[in-house]
Every structure is written in structure tokens, then in C-alpha cells.
Task: inverse folding
């Protein structure tokens, strides 16, 4: 039993009032504890949010102008490809080369030519170096194009009326399948083939030679004793 004045007063109160007061006190205690727990949770959440912001700031500190430039905010610059000028008027080369043969192909990389230099005749494909600073650029049916120190020059077949220098010796079978330069046809002689001298040369004793007819000279083998 409680002997304090407070206990005496509670005993004098109706039981319903005492129960209501106790309920209010208990509810207030639970409410206070709940507020404390909520404040603690909110504090941890705010701290975590601050840490996340700091981490994001640290990670974002590495973003520089280079990454911003990759975004192309003002549009992307288009770089046009470099096109080499096409040389239409290709002069004849003054190199002492002789074009012996040319083999064209639908695939330009497989086209080749026989070119005689000062040493010998060799087969060159497109892109090969013919001499120092001279590259075979293109093969045509009647000529080849050489790239000499960045400029194009033409090497054609020698004309029939030109006294082309004799080409150096080439290996057997090297010119198989190549287009050769045209040869000049030899005109037939106008001398009749049925003259008395011709008949005499064929062993006809009845040739009826005239005094002005010239007899062909035959080699005679004389056996000495």
C-alpha cells in the first residue's frame, strides 16, 4: 500500500479517471520515444545524403573540358576528305626507259608492264618502284603512267619510225601474255624470181644466160690431198 499523499489522492479518485490519466501518461512516453527515434533516423538519412553528394562531387570533379567538347553542344565539325588533284595533261617522260610490253587487267592492282631500264628488262606491277623516285602508277594498252617525284609522266611504246635502243636481255618466258610493240613490215622486193640467173641457181643448165646476167656465187668445198 502506498502511504504518500499522492497515493491517498489517487485512491480517492474514481477508477475510470485513474485509468485515463495512466493511459495519457503512457501515450506521452511512447510519443516522446517515437520522436527521438524519428529524429535519429532523419539525422542518419541527412548524413548519408550529404556523403552521397560529396562522393558525387568528388567523382564529377574529373569531368573536364575534353568531355564537354565531346558532347558537341554547338554541332559536330565535318572534315571533308582530302582529294588529290587529277592530272589530265600527262607529258612524255624523258627517262631512258623502253616499254617492251603491257598487260592490262580489270583489277588495276594486277596490271603489269615490261620495262627495260639501263640494266635489264623487268616486270613491274602497279605500285612497284621502277627506279629511285619512279613508281609505276597505271598500265594502259599503249603506254604506262609513271609517278616521278610526285608528278605523272607517260612512257609509250617506241614508234615505228624511231630508232629505239635495243632492249636489254630478258629472261625466257617473261613476256608471255604481254602486248608487244608493233613491228615494221618489210616490203617485198620487185626483182622477178624467174630470171635466167635464178633458173641457173636452181640447177637448170638450159637457162639461156645473157652476157649481162649475174650468176649467184655458190660456196665450193675443195678437198685437198
Result:
Amino acid at each position: 500500500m502506498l502511504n504518500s499523499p499522492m497515493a491517498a489522492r489517487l485512491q480517492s479518485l474514481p477508477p475510470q479517471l485513474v485509468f485515463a490519466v495512466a493511459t495519457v501518461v503512457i501515450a506521452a512516453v511512447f510519443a516522446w520515444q517515437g520522436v527521438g527515434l524519428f529524429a535519429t533516423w532523419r539525422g542518419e538519412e541527412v548524413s548519408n545524403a550529404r556523403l552521397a553528394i560529396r562522393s558525387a562531387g568528388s567523382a564529377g570533379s574529373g569531368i573536364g573540358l575534353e568531355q564537354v567538347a565531346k558532347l558537341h553542344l554547338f554541332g559536330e565539325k565535318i572534315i571533308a576528305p582530302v582529294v588529290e588533284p587529277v592530272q589530265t595533261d600527262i607529258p612524255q617522260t624523258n627517262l631512258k626507259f623502253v616499254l617492251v610490253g603491257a598487260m592490262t587487267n580489270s583489277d588495276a592492282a594486277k596490271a603489269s608492264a615490261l620495262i627495260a631500264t639501263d640494266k635489264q628488262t623487268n616486270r613491274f606491277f602497279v605500285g612497284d618502284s621502277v627506279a629511285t623516285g619512279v613508281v609505276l602508277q597505271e598500265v594502259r594498252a599503249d603506254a604506262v603512267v609513271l609517278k616521278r617525284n610526285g608528278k605523272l609522266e607517260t612512257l609509250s611504246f617506241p614508234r615505228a619510225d624511231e630508232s629505239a635502243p635495243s632492249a636489254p636481255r630478258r629472261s625466257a618466258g617473261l613476256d608471255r601474255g604481254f602486248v608487244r610493240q608493233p613491228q615494221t613490215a618489210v616490203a617485198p622486193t620487185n626483182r622477178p624470181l624467174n630470171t635466167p640467173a635464178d633458173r641457173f641457181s636452181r640447177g637448170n643448165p638450159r637457162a639461156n644466160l645473157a652476157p649481162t646476167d649475174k650468176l649467184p656465187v655458190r660456196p665450193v668445198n675443195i678437198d685437198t690431198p
